[in-house]
Specification:
- The chain has about 325 residues and is mostly helical.
- The chain has 2 domains: about 45 residues, no CATH class; about 220 residues, MetI-like (MetI-like fold, Orthogonal Bundle), CATH 1.10.3720.
- Helix content is about 80%, strand content about 0%.
- It is built from 15 helices and no strands.
- Helix 5 runs antiparallel to helix 6.
């Protein structure tokens, strides 16, 4: 297991390098100069060139990229914000808790609603509940986050005045953003849970458990759901990783001081170091979540755990076997 984790951690290096190269290239070849944007339209060419030299934007592409990666590896320095002149790392860490809280609340809501609905739909296949749940899943997947957020604000904040329309300071202010981000994921988890459960409950060991007189709830939870957890965990992990980046729209709509809103403001202001640092933070978080999901497989399915143990054992040499005999 330890060797597997080490291999996955090492595999993160080329992934993060690839992400950094892509985002750096996109921003580098984007029309317009950050120095010109910072100084305004009335700035002279000499002032723009002086600021570009100060920021290191006058150097060739490869030199800028190598210096950027070197600062990250050696000093964990993502540069300084063009607007606030503060460290990008400091600002990202300061805005990270709001994004993590929103993602955790959203994936918790999506998992509870999706798994419970999917299990009941599979057990009560073709029932009224199953049909209503299917309609809910299709509706949830079809609605974009920004539209869902705006509709929730209009209904629950403006019309009924139950929840605040913006902010993230109180538990009441968490409700609407959590529903906005978690709605689509709950529909996806529900569809995956239903599909996995339908495949499992038709197996012979489920029929045997019923023949032995096991209670239906024990069969569903202990036998069926446990053996259907692998695809469910996969889609939950992907959803959580996607929420770290997909919460950008929700944070902008509800004015949540998270990484998403910080990146949107940085894109508007051509604050390249902040955009690059935010993308790398999200990519790193997504990679860590995938690693945790792979490790969680071993605790859910004993067969996977035995594969990890089997791959870690070294084959004995002929000399060792002769000594043992």
């Amino acid at each position: 297991m330890i060797k597997f984790v080490i291999k996955r951690v090492i595999a993160l290096i080329p992934v993060l390098l690839g992400v950094s190269f892509i985002i750096f290239s996109l921003l580098y070849f984007t029309p317009g100069s950050p120095a010109e944007y910072m100084l305004g339209m009335d700035a002279t060419e000499e002032n723009i060139q002086a600021l570009e030299e100060e920021l290191g934007l006058d150097k060739p592409f490869l030199i800028q990229y190598v210096n950027y990666v070197k600062n990250i590896v050696l000093h964990f320095d993502f540069g300084k914000s063009y607007t606030t002149k503060q460290s990008v790392t400091t600002e990202l860490v300061a805005h990270l808790p709001a994004t993590v809280i929103l993602a955790v609340l959203s994936v918790g809501f999506a998992t509870i609603v999706g798994v419970v609905t999917g299990v009941i739909s599979a057990v009560k296949q073709y029932s009224i509940f199953d049909k209503c749940a299917t309609v809910f899943a299709l509706t949830g997947v079809s609605m974009p986050n920004f539209w869902t957020g705006l509709m929730l604000i209009i209904l629950f904040a403006v019309h009924w005045k139950i929840f605040p329309p913006s902010g993230f300071d109180t538990p009441l202010s968490w409700v609407l953003p959590t529903l906005t981000v978690g709605m689509a994921s709950s529909a996806t988890i529900m569809r995956q849970t239903r599909s996995a459960m339908l495949e499992v409950i038709r197996q012979d060991y489920i029929t045997t458990a019923r023949a032995k007189g096991q209670k239906e709830i024990v069969i569903v939870i202990r036998h069926a759901l446990r053996n259907a957890l692998i695809p469910i965990i996969t889609v939950v992990g992907i959803s959580f990783g996607g929420m770290l980046g997909g919460a950008i729209l929700a944070e902008s709509i509800f004015s949540i001081p998270g990484i998403g809103k910080l990146m949107v403001d940085a894109i508007k202001g051509k604050n390249y170091p902040m955009v690059q640092g935010g993308v790398l933070f999200i990519a790193l978080g997504f990679s860590i979540v995938n690693l945790l999901v792979d490790i969680l497989y071993a605790f859910v399915d004993p067969r996977i755990k035995s594969q990890y143990k089997g791959s870690s054992k070294k084959k004995k040499s002929p000399e060792t076997e002769e000594k043992e005999t």
